């Protein structure tokens, strides 16, 4: 074991089984709408994927393929730099955007390094999770000088992904029987962020994880991954960890906690994790769609009734986010704030 610090070691029940399993199932959906395809068909495919898996991949998503390539090259070039270069944009307690190499998920350290940036820069949000405290703070991005094109490529990618995010939110709204623009207003001052993930080869992939099991706290996540593989989804039917097969030109989509609440659990946010390996480094680039800080997240009125009463109390997304930040920076003894804290039992 020697080579891996204790902080990275997962408890036995959470370690990866490294036997490669091939399971088909996570849907691959073609987003192109030709004259022959019916939008209703697409909407029902999306609805089924959200319902059965909470995860799916999309092709013909409209994001230029050269841009997918460019952002991966930018990520690799950035992470390939010496630590002292990356540390120049290191995140700290004041600014949570930038480079970071010691993130913890559920109090176990992740085998990865990341670079985070906001889609809207600057972004304003509550300074503290306390409800009675209305102090706000400003978050802004830190951009490295090198590689030279880094900022431009990241921002161009973010703009394209934002468009795709709205398109998917519209399809998801339709699949729930809502008007297509039902969610759009929640994202006017969005707190969405993008993350470049680098998972270096790990000497003990059977003990550590790239990202420990978790659910995404936002509304929707869109991930670009390379061909290495490692992302696994906990299958709803039996809890088996199913790999998301790297598929060229495809993007991975998953439903986050907020859609679970908005839909009153018609769709669930599904647990996932990243397994590492001892040979190849891996890159992935998620964008997390977060609503505006003032949005009160709660089951949508159109989706609840006497027979299906709201399963969650409303919560303020900005305050929720502030509570998450506080705990994700440090290794805490207590559990992170969760949507289950607002569950009506
Ligand atoms: C995440 C995540 C998946 C991946 O960062 O929340 O789930 O493939 N990443 O890196
Ligand atoms: Ni995730």
Folded structure, characterized:
- This protein is of the alpha+beta class and 345 residues long.
- The chain has one domain: B-lactam Antibiotic, Isopenicillin N Synthase, Chain (Jelly Rolls, Sandwich), CATH 2.60.120.330.
- Helix content is 23%, strand content 21%.
- The strands form five sheets. Strands 1-2-14-11-16-9-6-3 form an eight-stranded mixed beta sheet. The protein has a four-stranded antiparallel beta sheet with strand order 10-15-12-13, with no helix packed on it.
- The N and C termini lie far apart (43 Å).
- The structure holds N-oxalylglycine and nickel (II) ion.
- The site of nickel (II) ion has 4 residues, from loops.
